[in-house]
């Protein structure tokens, strides 16, 4: 079985947001010139996940973002916490420098971003497609949910993000009735 891979690479400079990638997924299907199969969307990061959700409605997006930031308090030591920070904060043990595999200088405290990614997104999702079209519901879209974007200030590097779109065609689809 052949599989097709498209990688989305981008700089993530905003802390928490949803990025609609539905059109990129549709382009990958069209470029593969296949009719039926499955799409695997995979995040290569522990603080950015994937969701299938209604993304087009801006008030719902604000509600989702506000809920995620309120439900999981930010680390009090985080660079995002300033005198006017409107969401809850707390003390966490984690700090980026503690990871023995970390090879970058990073002075932020992002335990909340890890917890939000676990709570509000998935590392990867699978979506079927038929006759060259995604099998999504009327209001569903595919999005990346970023919880730890960085603006590059101080010693906190701008996040270079990668999401993968795997197009996996099916040899044959047999409908069961």
Give the SSE layout.
Elements: E1 4-12, E2 17-20, H1 22-32, E3 37-43, E4 48-53, H2 58-71, E5 74-75, E6 89-90, H3 111-120, E7 124-130, E8 133-134, E9 141-146, E10 159-169
Parallel strand pairs: 5-6
Antiparallel strand pairs: 1-10, 2-9, 3-7, 3-10, 4-9, 7-8
Describe the structure.
There is one protein chain. This protein has 177 residues and is of the alpha+beta class. The protein has one domain: Sandwich (Jelly Rolls), CATH 2.60.120. It contains three helices and ten strands, in the order ββαββαββαββββ. The protein has helices at 22-32, 58-71, 111-120, and strands at 4-12, 17-20, 37-43, 48-53, 74-75, 89-90, 124-130, 133-134, 141-146, 159-169. Strands 1-10-3-7-8 form a five-stranded antiparallel sheet, with helices on one face. Strands 2-9-4 form a three-stranded antiparallel sheet. It has a two-stranded parallel sheet with strand order 5-6. A hairpin with a 2-residue loop joins strand 7 and strand 8.
Give a brief description.
The chain has 177 residues and is an alpha+beta fold. It has helices spanning 22-32, 58-71, 111-120, and strands at residues 4-12, 17-20, 37-43, 48-53, 74-75, 89-90, 124-130, 133-134, 141-146, 159-169.
């Amino acid at each position: 079985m052949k599989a097709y891979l498209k990688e989305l690479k981008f700089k993530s400079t905003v802390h928490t947001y949803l990025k609609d990638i539905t059109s990129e997924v549709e382009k990958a299907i069209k470029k593969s010139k296949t009719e039926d199969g499955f799409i695997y969307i995979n995040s290569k990061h522990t603080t950015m996940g994937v969701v299938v959700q209604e993304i087009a409605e801006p008030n719902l997006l604000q509600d989702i973002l506000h809920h995620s930031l309120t439900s999981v308090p930010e680390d009090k030591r985080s660079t995002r916490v300033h005198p006017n920070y409107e969401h809850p904060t707390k003390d966490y043990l984690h700090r980026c420098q503690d990871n023995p595999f970390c090879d970058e200088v990073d002075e932020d405290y992002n335990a909340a971003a890890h917890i939000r990614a676990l709570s509000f997104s998935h590392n990867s999702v699978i979506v079927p497609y038929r006759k060259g079209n995604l099998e999504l519901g009327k209001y569903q879209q595919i999005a990346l949910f970023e919880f730890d974007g960085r603006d590059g200030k101080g010693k906190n590097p701008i996040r270079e993000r990668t999401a993968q779109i795997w197009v996996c065609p099916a040899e044959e689809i047999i409908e069961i009735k």
